[in-house]
Amino acid sequence: MPIKLTSSVLKTNNTGFKATFQRGLSAVTDTYWQRLAMLVPSDTREEEYGWLKDIPGIREWIGERFVHALAADGYKIKNKSYELTVAVDRDDMEDDRLGIYAPRFEMMGDEVARFPDVTVFGMLAAGFATNCFDGQFFFDTDHPVLDAQGNVTNVSNFGGGAGTAWYLMATRRPVKPLIYQRRKAFEFVPMDDPDNPLVFNKKQLTYGVDGRANAGFGFWQMAYASKQTLSDVNFKAARTALESLKGDFGKPLAIQPDLLVVPPSLRDAAEDLIVKQYLTGGGSNPLYKAVDLLVVPYL
After folding, report:
1. What contacts 145, CB < 8 A, 6 or more positions away?
2. Other Cβ atoms within 10 Å of 82 Cβ, number
3. CA pair distance 86, 106, nearest whole angstrom
4. 162-216 pLDDT tens trace
5. Is residue 112 within 8 Å of 25, Cβ to Cβ?
6. Are 159 and 55 in contact (CB under 8 A)?
7. To pair with 266 at 20 to 30 A between CA atoms, which of 7, 101, 141, 206?
8. For residues 284 and 275, what is the distance between their CA atoms, to the nearest angstrom?
9. Strand partners, 237
10. CA-CA distance, 90 to 204, in Å (whole number)?
11. With left for phi above 0 and alpha for psi between -120 and 50, is residue 60 left, alpha or beta?
């Protein structure tokens, strides 16, 4: 005899689905985005990042204070809505065949846990053709910076090339290269009222998650990209470029790169470069543990 879908039964099933979703969410421990993106809570439709145009520095106090003001019309990140929904056939619920849905709800939790990775690294890959706060592509050869005399000069954080991209980053400063902006954390939402027209007409009970978030760019000065061959010469050139960066009016930024980010196709080259202690044929590797290595499947 089919199980009668009373409010008590539906509540119990909903609790079980949610627990399975939570199990999938909690099981994920191998996310990457926290290393190179800062989490910024959002409390409105979009957030303004005009302050990214100015990296404040200590100066001698002569006369009045110099106020680092927020730009009136700066870089903005607009939140987007996201969802993932699973349908449960009413017959399966009446026949107590809910075990077949457990993997789906567990994968739903897995997807939510990995969503920031997908969003953040998607933005990183788009950095060659997407503007950041200064109006240039995030990875570009002509970021405008004022030199010691106050004249505009062009600064590069892109090594050129046409191969597979790799990235050298400084991730231990308060502002990271990328931003993960979260307006509303994903929450589990059921639509399982048998009297609901959608449930009645389609014979399906639906369970979903939805949230609001987006990713964007932080300081381009904290990241360098290259599509040249990942070699010791090109790695050293990228490291020197980051370490030599200056802010407006010639202020040294003292950036110390600490992370090499590569896709799986460059894992071997990256490990040869900075993970192996000895060079092929003998001799110590001068770049051994020069920076940490992060191999990202989303690139």
Report:
1. 152, 153, 154, 155, 246, 247, 248
2. 17
3. 11
4. 999 999 999 999 889 999 999 999 999 988 777 777 666 677 888 899 999 999 9
5. yes
6. no
7. 141
8. 12
9. none
10. 5
11. beta
